[in-house]
Specification:
single chain; mainly alpha; globular
Length: 250
């Protein structure tokens, strides 16, 4: 089973389709170096997916330090040769964005770089004709209390992430649609939360229409970077690290 949620054999088949689309075979002296084994390509892409997701979730928590280790891994592990030719420019974009995360001391800049990285995955998939399977995004049990409401935020963000990475306009719009839910306010929010936290909660939902109407990848990158940067800022207002994944500080 691959880290994409499907057997490695399914991913291998996808990459073999890409590798097989080359027209007639050139003379032996003109042939390129043999392509990397499909399983190696699939494993490499699964590692990309896993590390980029680690970066994204750390950024959402507002834990820049935790984002930088997998970002540095992405910078250093772009050496697999003989990938489809159309992928090279996007791998360079991923590496440059990962470098930006690894080097910055500003969570907002890290959020934009992360969004750019995720979108580069989607552009690479489009260029190479590969549609990777995306893991199912779980449905939260409800959205009446603050905990369940935050789970709904996470579901929306996860769907938008997959919409950028696949890419899939349907997944993106499904996630954006979840942001249209009314923000928590009044008695629904604990009184001890600051006005800044309440304002941040409202801003998340204000992004819904912009996200739904995003016309191109550039607009989606800007919105997604702002969204996960806003999550990080709000989590930081609590005075401890909250959010998806294992928090560094309880």
């Amino acid at each position: 089973m691959s880290r994409f949620g499907l057997p490695v054999s399914a991913l291998i088949a996808l990459m073999l389709i890409v590798a097989g689309c080359g027209g007639s075979t050139p003379p032996a002296e003109e042939q390129a170096t043999p392509a990397a084994p499909a399983e190696s390509v699939a494993d490499h892409m699964a590692d990309h997916f896993s590390h980029i997701r680690d970066i994204e979730q750390a950024v959402i928590r507002g834990d820049l330090e935790a984002a930088q280790a997998p970002a540095q891994w992405m910078v250093e592990h772009q050496t697999l040769s003989n990938l489809p030719a159309d992928s090279a420019v996007y791998l360079a974009e991923i590496r440059n964005s990962a470098s930006g995360v690894a080097a910055t001391d500003d969570i907002g800049n890290a959020a934009v770089a992360t969004a750019t990285m995720v979108a580069a995955c989607g552009k690479c998939h489009t260029a190479t004709g590969v549609t990777p399977p995306m893991p199912d995004v779980p449905q939260p049990a409800g959205a009446e209390g603050i905990t369940d409401h935050m789970k709904q935020h996470m579901q929306a963000v996860d769907l938008m992430y997959e919409g950028l990475a696949a890419p899939s306009d349907d997944l993106w719009k499904k996630g954006a649609g979840l942001l249209k839910a009314s923000p928590l306010e009044g008695e629904s929010l604990p009184q001890e939360l600051s006005d800044d936290v309440k304002a941040a909660e409202a801003r998340v939902h204000e992004m819904a229409d912009r996200a739904t109407n995003a016309a191109d990848t550039g607009a989606k990158i800007a919105i997604y970077g702002e969204l996960i940067g806003g999550c990080a800022s709000c989590h930081g207002l609590h005075g401890k690290v909250w959010g998806p994944g294992v928090p560094k500080v309880e």
